[in-house]
Specification:
Length: 295
DNA sequence: CTCCAGGGATGAT
DNA sequence: ATCATCCATGGA
């Protein structure tokens, strides 16, 4: 396979692909294969260099946001123990520039799902409705267009293990392909208007809207709050708060984590999932419950 | 504000 | 082989 080398300092490919932003990259040889838009791409990291499928250097550099000023972004994080630990652990993790429809559709599928399951849904949608691409002898599939999914029946989508998400994914696919909503044009909207419009789409609430803003619209201030992040916030930032509703958390995160709050969120998220020791929250919580139950 | 359906993989027993 | 657990949205 012929590869192009591009310079990629301050970048960690594996962490970036494993941090819950994208769900379709697979390990292959010494790197990963996946799609960037409609292109099938192989990429591997060698220190400060990336080797990517010949001809796709610029495509990859843009996708992996190698131009984000990561040192400056990390400097803008607040100085507190949790953030420092996450920053150290996630060195080189970048927020990818994803295609808008692919990102929106994938995150609609993600609701109430764990990462491994989201990966399977993404794979099934691609295999059944996406266009095939070859990397060497390995076949993979691009994410299907909105038009393609809009033409599906709800039943067909359900067969991709989508459950009740089939209905909202289908409804949103039809909205974005039949006129009323133009994902590309929405780039021009302010954060507030963009979030509001995304939340109008079936299957999109505050959390998924923020994910799409962060991963597909480059709104680096957007701060998605899922259960992992909420756990971190409660434990590290509000250890003894009694009433802590969504509005209070939202206000806090928007102000405290600064102009690149989305990056801070991604670092805290990845550190919580991958960095904390293996005997982490789950067993601790279970022990606590067990101890409590004895009294 | 609270409660709860929803689907399928995964981990515990 | 069962049983509990993980999870965001939307509607009651």
């Amino acid at each position: 396979m012929h590869l192009t080398e591009i310079s990629a300092s301050d970048f960690d490919l594996e962490k970036t692909l494993d941090s819950g932003q994208v769900f379709h990259w697979e390990k292959m040889d010494d790197g990963f294969c996946g799609t960037i838009g409609q292109r099938g791409v192989y990429v591997e990291q060698r220190g400060d260099e990336l080797r990517v499928t010949r001809g796709y250097g610029e495509l990859a550099a843009h996708y992996f946001a190698l131009d984000h000023p990561l040192a400056n972004i990390c400097r803008s994080f607040p100085r507190d123990p949790a953030m420092e630990a996450a920053r150290k652990f996630c060195r080189g993790l970048r927020i990818i520039r994803q295609p808008k429809w692919e990102c929106l559709a994938t995150f609609i599928c993600s609701s109430m799902k764990q990462v491994t399951h989201i990966r399977q849904i993404s794979r099934k949608l691609r295999e059944r409705f996406g266009d095939a691409r070859k990397i060497g002898h390995h076949e993979l599939f691009a994410f299907p267009s909105g038009q393609r999914l809009a033409a599906c029946s709800e039943k067909e989508l359900r067969q991709c293990a989508l459950g009740y998400r089939a209905k909202t994914l289908l409804a949103t696919a039809r909205l974005i392909t039949s006129g009323p909503v133009d994902l590309e044009r929405m780039s021009a909207l302010s954060d507030v208007d963009l979030r509001e419009m995304l939340c109008e789409l079936p299957g999109v609430g505050a959390k998924i809207a923020n994910c799409v803003m962060l991963f597909a619209y480059e709104r680096l201030h957007a701060f998605p709050i899922d259960v992992w992040i909420e756990r971190v916030l409660r434990e590290k930032y509000f250890p003894s708060a009694r009433k802590l509703n969504a509005a209070r958390l939202r206000t806090f995160t928007q102000e405290y984590f600064g102009e690149h709050g989305g990056y801070a969120q991604q670092y805290l998220f990845h550190y919580a999932r991958r960095g904390a020791s293996k005997s982490n929250n789950r067993s601790k919580i279970k022990n606590r419950i067990r101890m409590g139950a004895r009294r």
